Structure formats: structure tokens, C-alpha cells
Amino acid sequence: xxxxxxxxxxxxxxxxxxxxxxxxxxxxxxxxxxxxxxxxxxxxxxxxxxxxxxxxxxxxxxxxxxxxxxxxxxxxxxxxxxxxxxxxxxxxxxxxxxxxxxxxxxxxxxxxxxxxxxxxx
Length: 121
What we know:
This protein has helices at residues 20-36, 51-56, 82-94, 107-112; strands at residues 41-42, 62-65, 68-71, 99-100, 114-116. It is an alpha/beta fold.
């Protein structure tokens, strides 16, 4: 039986309010570190922010206030493609050397990690 190695969790953000170039640099560092460590199924390192803020900050109905997430209204699907762009960037870095996974925070984690805004309908 073969066990594939992978990672969970996020690299710590390297900059406060990073530019896209700084984010790409951080993703590249995370990818290189994972490959150097022998990880076979890598991620982008989730360098933008923590996993809950990453998604709740892009989904209508959530609001992030100083790293706390609030449910402020009806939760709607998003058309933000940041996750896809980061995935494609990682693919351009590694080609076929390793497998890549996209990390998606589940709905239960999002809701249980959020507070209900008192003014929410």
C-alpha cells in the first residue's frame, strides 16, 4: 500500500496588505518548500490569509471585520476566481513534477467560525 504525502493548514501571511507580486512570491516559496520536503500532493500554501477569511471575504452574506467573520445577510455564491488563478499559477510552477490540490473551506467550518451580526435580517 502506498501512502501519498500532503499538507494541511496555511503558511503564515508574509506581508500585511500584500501586492499580487508579493502573493505570487509567497506562493512560489510555499511550493518550493513543499517540493523540497518531498510532499507529493501540494497546495498553494494558502498564503493570502487564513482559510476562513480567504473564503468568507469573497462570499456575499459574510463580512470580515478585523479578522473576525460575521454573517450579515443571505449567503450567495461568488464569481471570484482567485482560488482558480492561484491553482493555475502553481501548475505553471510545477508542471507534472507533483500533484496539486485546491483547498476549499467547507460550509460547516465557515458557519461555525462566524458570528451572527445582530443587524442581519
